[in-house]
Each structure stands twice: as C-alpha cells, then as structure tokens.
Design a protein that fits this description.
alpha/beta; 6-stranded parallel β-sheet; 5-stranded parallel β-sheet; globular
C-alpha cells in the first residue's frame, strides 16, 4: 500500500479523548487510535491528551469529577506547549466549551474538530453533538442520515465520516485461510444476553445447526477486548455486523470496519444503505432472516466463493476507508480547504432532518 504524500509542513494535531489510559492496551483497535495512525501517515506531528487520566491524576483520590477543572487547565497548558494547528475532540466530556473558546483566543488560527461515532438515534448523544457544534469548526459523525439536530445557524457544519480501517491494526487476512475454527463470528460489547441484536444471529444459527458459530457477549461467552478479541474475530471465516440501530443510513458501529478490515466475509443489512458504497460481490447483504440464512449456508458450503467475496470486501474497505484518507478528509474540512480527491462517501454538509426520516 503506497504511503500518502505528507500534509502541509508543520501540521500539528492534538487528539483529545480516552487514548492510552487505564484500559492498558485493550482499546488498541478503536477509532481514535486508527485516526492517530492516519494523521501520522500524512506526515502530521500528533500528540495525545487523555482528559480522564489527567483529571484522575490531578487529585489525591484519583477522582475524575474532582479533577475536571484541572483537566481543563492542563489542556490549555498542553496547547500552549505544543501549539497544535488542529485539535480533534473525541468523547472528552470533561472538557468544557468555555475551555475551547479560551484556546481560540490564545491561539489564533487554531481549528477545532469534533468526532462522534455513536448512534444519533440516542437523544443524549445528539445532545453531546449539538453542544460541541456550537463552538467547534467542524463535526464528523459516522452516520449518513442527517438526524443530528444541529441547527443551520450553528457554528460547525456536520459531515459524514466512515469508520476508518488501518493496515497496521487491521492485519487479519481471513480470505487467505480456510482453517478457522468457526464459520461465523458475532459480538456485542454489552455481555447482555437480552441484547436485541442477538435475536437475528441466534435465529440464523437455529436454522443452520451445522454452522460453527462464535457469539461473544452471550451467557457463557463473555465479551472480549484487546488482542483476545481480535484473535477470536480472526478465527472465523465470516462475520455479522449488526449495529444498534441497524436501519439508519450509513450508520455502523466500528465492528463492520473491524470485520472487513481483517478479511472476513461480512454480512450487513441492506437497511443500512451500505450497498451505495460496496458491491454485492464485496459484502453479503441481506434483507431478512431468510436471505441471511440462505447466504450463510451457501458461503459456508462454497469456500472459494466466500474467500473471493471476503477479499474483495477487504480490498474495498482498505482502499475506501483507509485511516490516512479519513484523516486527510478531516483536515480538509476542518480548515475549509478544497477537497483533494473525490471521496467515495457523502461529502456534502448535512442539513438536519426530523428524526423519523
């Protein structure tokens, strides 16, 4: 894979969120880590500020809430020391909008971007996005439907961004193997056997008793994190991506990019609209349980067809959603620069529509 051309000389990016904290490496495959890799590949100088860890470490009793004020002060100091050109905010709820406005006054020309990767059908998450949109320069959401509720008068435009794939993190090549222990992998992070996302895969497994399934987050098989999660994912030939919800245009949890990025044949509901980006020969799309069962059974029996489709999906995901490509898009939109390429995903500023659209 060719190395992309460097970004403009001296571009400094500060990532603010829960990176390299007390998860002790369990989250090495998460979205913020992939974006960090992408910015570095572009030639950016990247620094990280973990607001939660700074808050905890600033109080004798390691209290996040008590350390909130200190985290805000230390973010200001970090920016004074590092002088970033762009600050990318993740889930850093300890950081106040007032602190971001102070950053602007101290560092003219600084751009602020906010990245939101959770479902916008959740009212609390929409409120988080709307709060940030009032003070940043650009918002990036992993939902293609404009249901964010940000008013047109808000400071920040809202743009779609795909969940990135990174070649140093998504290293599996499921299409190159046939010796996996399982035919189908599905995981929910809750560990809750009542999770509604389990209904479809469990029903499919009942219809296909010969299918070797590995369902994680179900009673008896707890949710996994870290390298153990990636190992389990890569020990299956196929993967099922079901988000919560699973019928919002171009919304998917990062599980979809993890499955595609590691070379599993990935099953995705057509209700998500991802057939606008991927072909039927790259992802196993389905409309309902009957079609899911038919395709699972077919690809379980025809391994060459499974491997060909999985490789095509892997190639498409690593090309379309490459971490450096997503990072470049964030830079261009955040600085109001002309787009340097025709990106395959929707790039127009999203105008909010009612939630039921």
């Amino acid at each position: 894979m060719p190395i992309p051309a460097p970004s403009p000389p001296g571009r400094k990016v500060l990532l603010v969120g829960n990176l390299f904290g007390r998860e002790l490496g369990n989250d090495f495959y998460m979205i913020m880590q992939k974006l960090m890799h992408g910015f570095i590949r572009l030639g950016c100088n990247v620094h990280v500020f973990n607001d939660r860890e700074v808050a905890r470490g600033s109080t004798p009793l390691l209290s996040t809430s008590t350390g909130r004020a200190a985290a805000n002060r230390k973010l200001l100091k970090t920016c004074d020391n590092f002088r970033p050109d762009l600050v990318v905010l993740g889930h850093c709820e300890l950081i106040e909008n007032a602190t971001l406005e102070t950053l602007r006054s101290r560092h003219p020309g600084l751009r602020l971007a906010y990245r939101n990767v959770d479902t916008l059908t959740d009212a609390k998450n929409r409120a988080r996005l709307q709060r940030r949109a009032a003070c940043v320069d650009a918002v990036f959401a992993t939902t293609g439907a404009a249901i964010h509720g940000v008013p047109a008068r808000s400071r920040a435009p809202v743009y779609f961004m795909p969940n990135p794939v990174d070649p140093a993190i998504d290293t599996g090549r499921g299409f190159a193997r046939s010796d996996q222990a399982h035919d189908l992998f599905f995981a929910v992070g809750t560990g809750n056997s009542a999770d509604p996302r389990l209904r479809l895969p469990q029903a499919a497994a009942q219809r296909l008793p010969e299918l070797r399934v590995d369902f994680r987050g179900v009673a008896g098989k707890p949710a996994l994190r870290g390298a153990a999660f990636i190992d389990a994912l890569c020990d299956a030939r196929m993967g099922l991506s079901i988000s919560r919800p699973d019928d919002v245009y171009l919304y998917a949890s990062d599980r979809m990019s993890q499955l595609l990025g590691n070379g599993l044949l990935t099953f995705v509901s057509r209700a998500t609209g991802f057939q606008d980006l991927f072909g039927e020969d790259q992802i196993a799309f389905y409309d309902d349980l009957d079609e899911l069962v038919d395709k699972l059974g077919y690809f379980a029996r025809h391994d060459d067809a499974r491997r060909n489709a999985a490789e095509a999906g892997w190639q498409a995901a690593h090309a379309m959603f490459a971490s450096h490509r997503v990072a470049k898009y964030i830079l261009e939109r955040s600085f109001d620069l002309p787009l340097t390429e025709t990106y395959p995903w929707p790039t127009a500023r999203e105008t909010s529509v009612p939630r039921d659209h």
